[in-house]
Amino acid sequence: MVQSTGPKKIKCSVFISGTGSNLKSLIEFSIKKNSPISIELIISDNLNAKGLKFGKIFKISNKVFNYKNKLIAEKKIISEIKNKKIELICLAGFMRILSKNFIKKFKGKILNIHPSLLPKYKGLNTHQRAISNSEKYSGCTVHFVNSQLDSGKIILQKKVKINKGETAASLAKKILIQEHKLYPKAISKVFNL
Ligand code: GRF
Questions:
Q1: Is the minimum distance from the CB of 46 to ligand 1 under 6 angstroms?
Q2: 20 to 30 A from 104, CA-CA: which of 27, 72, 111, 162?
């Protein structure tokens, strides 16, 4: 068997709840020769998350956790992450708020992508709120996760112009294209590449 001689990659887990287009872009990034990460585990709270298919396509383990009881779900996730020696968690459209305890356990090791120019428009429904406020620009942000929603240290942002007649759907589409480029760039920045 041919052994890889490249530097050791950071073991990463991506958390998703839905489509997983950011997961796909992260997987594509991870399999590039000089990428600092290797994605070892996909975690979801939703059995029907479309993005789970990427686990099958790229042969990455998928684990789905029942969030009826968040405390139990997080306990199981923590043990899974420890088993797999995960060093970096990338939230990518994961629609659950992690507990303070969970965040404390992985302090400085959890990243998130958010579809607005934080600190503006934290939380949900970002595109419609930006349009309703007649913003000229919106965009996306990759940031560290701390115990307050969408408030951790910002790593990178990308501005996107809001055109006349822009709808939440058309803006979401434009921003998502930028998200797919921004998340890998932000990870490279975190690892000084
Ligand atoms: C993205 O817009 C992301 O910023 C937000 O949820 C959406 C997830 O999209 N947190 P996808 O599942 O990666 O396609």
A1: no
A2: 27
Q: What is the rounded distance in angstroms from the CA atom of residue 13 to the CA atom of residue 32?
A: 17
Angle made by CA atoms 38, 39, 42, in degrees to the nearest 5: 170
Q: What are the angstrom distances between the C-alpha of 55 and each of 25, 51, 107, 146, 175?
A: 13, 8, 26, 27, 24
Q: Of all protein residues, whose CA lies closest to atom 5 belonging to ligand 1?
A: 93
Q: How far is the CA of 153 from the centre of ligand 1 (A)?
A: 19
pLDDT in tens, 49-100: 999 999 999 999 999 999 999 999 999 999 999 999 999 999 999 999 999 9
180 is catalytic: no
Per-residue pLDDT tens digits for 115-124:
999 999 999 9
Classify residue 123 as left (phi > 0), alpha (psi -120 to 50) or beta: left
Taking the C-alpha atoms of residue 17 and residue 24, their distance in angstroms, rounded to an integer, is 13
135 lines ligand 1 (CB under 6 A): no
CATH of span 10-106: 3.40.50.170
Distance between CA atoms of residues 35 and 184, nearest Å: 9
Give yes or no for residue 114 CB within 6 A of ligand 1.
yes
Encoding tokens for residue 74? 């997080």
Query: Of residues 114, 127, 143, 180, which has the active-site annotation?
Result: 114
Spatial neighbors of 32 by CB under 8 A, at least 6 apart, are: none
